[in-house]
Amino acid sequence: MTEYIPLHLDWPGCLNVRDLGGLPLTGGGTIRERVLVRSDCPSYLTDDGVVAATDYGLSRIIDLRRPDEIDRWPSRLGGLPAHLHLPVQEPDDPEEGPWVHLYAGLLDRRPELFARAVAAVADAPEGPVLVHCAAGKDRTGLVVALALTLVGADADALADDYEITNERLAPRYAQLADEPDYDRPVGRLVPPTREVILGALEHLRTRHGSVEAYLAQGGLTPGHVRALRTRLVG
After folding, report:
1. Which fold has domain 7-232?
2. This prediction's pTM
């Protein structure tokens, strides 16, 4: 397998920005550079960070957060024409714990929303597509994992990329843990391991037969899958 060297991007203010180019495929080759980027929330961007992000030539920005999150923490890229708000949750959806149940619940409840997000990567105009949520870990991790799995990404490399987020967000975890008014479950500050994302993908295979079958149930078409493969692999 080709060694995966993460391509971290310096967008000041954000801690967890990676171009997924170079991630290995199971049959050889890698994901192309400058086609798929993941990040934490652009609300953290400084002025220099906004410049760095816009200079990267983003063709589409997919914001997976709920409306209440956007109201509370507006994206500094939200005014760009490339911005799309495509939440993968409805406002009243519960969030279970621990991690494995959280991810399974998100996926099982809203296949149409996850399919819509993956389709938005597939049919974006030419150029890098940014996918983000709040931390760039859970919802972003799922959408990115679904897209990468569809095009044949190596599962171990995919899990490695997922777990890199823990290291990148460690300073923010430490800061949040010290804030008395932090309104998320304390358990969510315990970083999830690679087994969490691998378990979520296995859950889809067990319940639906494959990731592609799950997304097809939500409305993803064979045309979307072909476009995604062309975009990410070439």
Report:
1. Protein-Tyrosine Phosphatase; Chain A (3.90.190)
2. 0.94
